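Methods: holo model generation. Sequences were used as deposited, without trimming of termini or removal of tags, and paired with ligand SMILES retrieved from the corresponding compound records. Each pair was processed once, and we did not select among multiple samples. The sequence and manganese (II) ion SMILES for this entry were:
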Amino acid sequence: MFKAVEKDIIFNANKSFTEILDKDYDYFCERISRLNINPESLKEKISNFNVALPSWGVGTGGTRFARFPGIGEPQNIFEKIEDCAVINDLVGITSSVSPHFPWDDVDDYPALRQFTESYGINFDIVNSNTFQDPAGSKGSFKYGSLTHIDQSVREQAIKMNIDCIEKGITLGSKGLTVWIADGGNFPGQQNFSKSLERYVSSMQSIYTKLPEDWMILLEHKPYEPAFYSTIINDWGTSYICAKELGEKAMCLVDLGHHLPNTNIEMIVSRLIGLKKLGGFHFNDSKFGDDDLDSGSINPFELFLIFNELTNANKLGKLNNIAYMIDQSHNVTDPIESLILSSNEIINAYAKSLLVDYQSLRDAQNCNDVIKSSQILKEAYNIDVNPLCQMIRMEKKHAIDPISVYRSLHYKENKSKIRKNDSGSSSGIV
Ligand SMILES: [Mn+2]
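and the model returned the structure below.
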């Protein structure tokens, strides 16, 4: 850690914020003392939280209309790791990266692992990409991958996923996320039941190649790129398939992959109850799968999701959850977006730790609707920024990561070294 950003730069920048932070933190401690909460216990829990950065998220994303790359964009996985390390040195809660293959293919995986670990970064869940044709491939995924009617194309997609597992093993990963773009644009185009059967069969072939301590995460999505039907269209289908595959198969909830107004926190609760919640792709949306920055549109929803997680954790019902960010940065410097997103995520988690769950249960058991709502709102309305800033400062990270980042002129400097490629290598999944 602190290979990407010099510790002294952060230390000196923090000096100008400490006086105000001390005052804000004192008030925060006084405020939570009224809830009988000890700030030290919060610090410990928050310090143990980590959210993985998406390797594809540090490059500028795009829409189907255009992509507007910024200066100094990373052109390969090594440069992406450098950018992720900048973020982690500043915020301290993003010490892992979720790679995407074949986008992040390299010749020497042990060397990539060594390079990454030298920045204090580990590899999180690996992602497979069978939604576009790999260079030089024999079959095409135009009409599907794991569910394609042609067995040879299915086998090609299965092999790509198994290759991902092998790359992930070398990199020290412990899981694979599978999202497929398979679906249809016309009624009658696909046989719904047969394509789902082919999906399960293909996934079974991949599942058998999982190491003992791995999990496979099934990511659902209601539409796009297919706009009439999608194979794994909702959490229920995802659950049924995960159950069919076995105990290493878990469901991944991408916040954007739901129809508008879906109660995502309830889905989270259901999956916890069914022991099939495996991970998250954090982002935000207004209309659909907009891949906007986490917490930028609906931070209350993000809090309510963490409320379910924290409540379940207190009851001993939460196992190993993979927290990852998955968003597309079209008009911002992705590094700034990811800094703010990680901040929104940790804030939502911190607020959930302020909920008085015993009082909430009591209020629910008395049908006290207003009191129940008030308990959640009281926690949500407390400003946890001073707590998260204090934790960052104590661990030598930046109190104000955006201002430190801007003072580095990082992308400007990188633009002199990195070749700027306007081609699209980023994706939205
Ligand atoms: Mn996703």
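The pocket of manganese (II) ion is lined by residues 219, 254, 281, 326, 429 (CB under 6 Å).
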